UniProtKB/TrEMBL annotation:
Domain of life: Eukaryota
Amino acid composition bias (Basic and acidic residues), ranges on this chain: 214-252
Source species: Rotaria magnacalcarata
Region ranges (Disordered): 209-268
Protein name: Uncharacterized protein
């Protein structure tokens, strides 16, 4: 509480200003107008002094503020104004500030005021709305974070794909460069071969003739080998036939001997 005394130009008038912060955050400003009434009584010509009877009259007026906003001159009027401002903030979805104003209205009004229960109920409604708003904002923040993470993932994939594309392009360029070098080498060799066309053709023709002669010799050798194989087969066949005839004759001789043996045994 602060106190400030200010003298007035009026004779015997003095103003007193008091500022007090109430429990709900409302500021109460008190303006007191004080006047003095002086009565002088003379007790005669031979008075020894002057007696003064002094009386003081005090009138107070009040103003209520929430911050710099004027609310009214009485507690209940200030409470109604604070509640009205709270409703406006509530409609703007500023639930936390609305709760503060509803609380200011409830704490400022006179006990038993007809709107006291309304102010208290508005506090509860604003608290619930503020909590729901915080939950929604938290969910929104979580969704935003997930979206940001998804965006980062997409960005990372895009960067990775870009790097892969750059690597493929680099590899293609190196391959093209090597292919170009090989092409130049091939062209050089082709040019060299073209310059040596006659010699190359001569060598090719000589190789062809040599191959042809070798082929002819191979054919002749294969023919001789076939004839030799045929003769060997015939010789082997005759040898088999001779062996078979000898074995047959041997068998006949053995049979004749056995028969003669039997005849001799019979005579005995």
């Amino acid at each position: 509480m602060s106190l400030n005394l200010v003298s007035s130009a009026e004779w015997g008038v003095e103003y007193e200003y008091t500022t007090e912060t109430l429990s709900g955050g409302v500021t109460k400003r008190t303006k007191a107008r004080k006047t003095k009434e002086n009565v002088r009584t003379l007790t005669g010509i031979f008075t020894l002094g002057i007696s003064e009877i002094v009386g003081e009259h005090r009138v107070e007026s009040y103003e209520y503020y929430y911050g710099s906003d004027y609310l009214g001159e009485t507690k209940n009027a200030a409470a109604d104004a604070a509640n009205k401002k709270g409703v406006a903030l509530f409609n703007e979805k500023n639930f936390e500030e609305a709760e503060k104003l509803f609380n200011a209205a409830y704490r400022t009004c006179e006990t038993g005021y007809t709107s006291e229960a309304l102010f208290k109920n508005n506090i509860t409604i604003a608290q619930n709305a503020a909590e729901a708003q915080k939950a929604a904002e938290a969910q929104k923040a979580a969704e935003a974070q997930r979206a940001a993470e998804a965006q980062r993932t997409v960005e990372q994939e895009r960067i990775a794909e870009k790097k892969a594309a750059e690597a493929r392009e680099h590899a293609w360029r190196e391959k093209a460069q090597r292919a170009g070098e090989l092409q130049r080498v091939a062209e050089k060799r082709a040019a060299d071969a073209e310059r040596n066309t006659v010699e190359t053709q001569r060598i090719v023709e000589a190789c062809r003739q040599q191959a042809q002669r070798a082929n002819e010799r191979q054919i002749a050798a294969e023919k001789k080998a076939a004839e030799a194989e045929k003769k060997a087969a015939e010789t082997e066949k005759r040898a088999v036939e001779a062996q078979t005839a000898a074995e047959k004759k041997q068998e006949e001789t053995e049979n004749t001997a056995v028969e003669a043996q039997r005849e001799a045994e019979k005579k005995e």
